[in-house]
Input
Amino acid sequence: MTSDRTTTPKLSPRLSALAVLILGVALTRLLPHPPNFTPILALGLFGGAMFDRKHLGFVVPLAAMLISDLCLELMFGYGIHGLMPVIYGLVALSTVLGFLMRGKLGIAMVIGLGTASSALFFLGSNFAVWLGSTKYPQTLEGLLACYTAATPFFQNTLLGTFAYAALMFGGWAIAEKRIPVLANTGAPA
Output
């Protein structure tokens, strides 16, 4: 006798654990923290490096960010804003940088791409602020003034990216050793 029911594909333990880790880290944005000391760029790097299916490298970190942004909006009234498309685009760019880590994961790679991701985020997000702002004149001097005003936040962006990348990549490496089912066995995650 055959069954008419369709079977729902099961998520692998690795895929499930990666998604839970990313969502958990994204929700740390709800905790008090210094300005720009957030996991968002590390989420992109980690997603790009760890998911075998590239689309999941984008979807899971961005979905986790959206969930945390909605929580920030509901709890504090500031999660949804006009720069969201730019911010999400820059996190997606961080995911693309994460793809470069595949098969070459190491401390130097995480530091190098974490620095690149942070620098691109600083340049891109502050360019968007300048472009949409009436505070800064739409001149080269205005753009430089915007970047100058944002410089103190860059240090926290770097530190947040490095701290969360260390937590995610280091924590995952330990978890893979202690829980063999999480190791990448070639099955897509």
User: Anything to note?
Assistant: Helices lie at 13-26, 40-50, 54-76, 84-99, 107-131, 140-178. Residues 13-28+35-179 form one domain. The chain has one domain: 13-28+35-179. The chain has a mean pLDDT of 91.
